[in-house]
Amino acid sequence: MYFIEVQEKNLLVSPKLFYYIGMNTTNLVPRGFYRTTILIGLGFFTLGLMDPLYDAYVPLFLGDYLSSRFLIGLIMTLDNVFALFLIPLVAALSDRTKTSIGRRMPYIIVTLPLSAIFFMLLPSGALPRGSLMTLIVLLFLLNLAKQASRGPVVALMPDLTDKNYRSQANGVINFMGGIAAIVGTVALAPLIDVDLTLPLFGSTLRSLPFLISGVLVIVATLALFVFVKEPRNSLRQGTTDDEREKQVPLRESIQRIFGVGSQNDTSGRYVLLALFFWFLGYQGVLPFITTYSRDVLGTTEGLAGLSPGAVAIAYAIFVIPSGILAGQIGRRKVIRLSLLGIIIVMSLIYFHYPLSRAFGLDVTTSWMSFLGLLFFFGMFWGSVVTNSFPMLWHMASYETMGIYTGMYYLFSQGAAITAPVLAGGFIDWGTYVLGPTGGLRTMFLFAVLCMSIALGFMLKVTRES
Known about the structure:
Low-confidence stretches: 1-27, 233-245
Structural class: mainly alpha
CATH superfamily of the largest domain: MFS general substrate transporter like domains
Shape: globular
Number of helices: 18
Number of strands: 5
Distance between the termini: 28 Å
Strand order of the largest sheet: 1-2-3
Radius of gyration: 22 Å
Order of helices and strands: EEEHHHHHHHEEHHHHHHHHHHH
């Protein structure tokens, strides 16, 4: 390891010593970089803590009142509908906010604690003590607060991080989100079956994971507020005055992205179409994995909630190595190979249940082998997600960076809105044709179809990044 001294300028922290890894100057990061980035990532940690529990158990809560997978899938799109409009809206409002504690923090310290409170109350809408109307109202309020927080939380990292270190910071933050998902699914999800009696809350049956995670969200928000200080000026670090003043009309920016005109590359268009379909496949499976584990494989609700945890563990483990691999062979090749891996794994999962029965496997063994397949799914999925945003960023110039980011969220959230409804309808059709067990299994065929289309679009991408 070599040490060099540089002048302090536009840094996340104010060190004089930097460390140099290997022989590539792009790996140069400030001392204390990871500690500070982890503190910034507390906002991502809170969202990562709530999301897997939400995806795992809200379909079960809705199943207390609704039998149609289509209707459940329709309600499950509520968070994505809010995300589609609130993320850019609140982020834009925070751009124009000036307070003594910064421009992002006022939104964060209000919306994240509100999200925690509504999240803790969410099981109150489930049977036997709730009602469908109570559950829907709580879902509405939770998603209003949670999605309003996401824009300022996402914008906080590039505000406080020099542009030369945002890729490294993004890897750290994605890792924190993976750790949060592991905590939520592996440590907290099994507590859904624990029945204690607490003051004010009463019985904790089906609610303890939500109570604990809500408290953790509030604690993490307080730590974020105490230890992370926003700069008073609103200008992003690491950019020149000329770059800030240079603007490209919105229409021209969109034309560049989609390759309209003979001078523009079409690779951006195909990447966006590909990510729409791979998010469509992922979001079409994730909300129903817990239900599948319980109703098809025969596990308890507590164990069923661990199923998304296998995906989260693999994601957290491989998020950094996949970025390193992309640096060696290219992001385009990593994404293509990962999509092919997902197609193979989803095909194997579709045949998993009948093969388990044919070999006479008991419930535990069948479920454990299912988790093993989900682990590989998480490994490949993490490789796709980790490299997709940097791939788009690399294609963008400074003046089109914002529109590329907006297009990423437009296509990904559009897929997230569409997926549960399409997958739910696909499952309902499969149930009508093949029965309840065969119907739930068809969601894996849905994923295979979507990932295959995504791979087809990625094969059309000619620009390496």
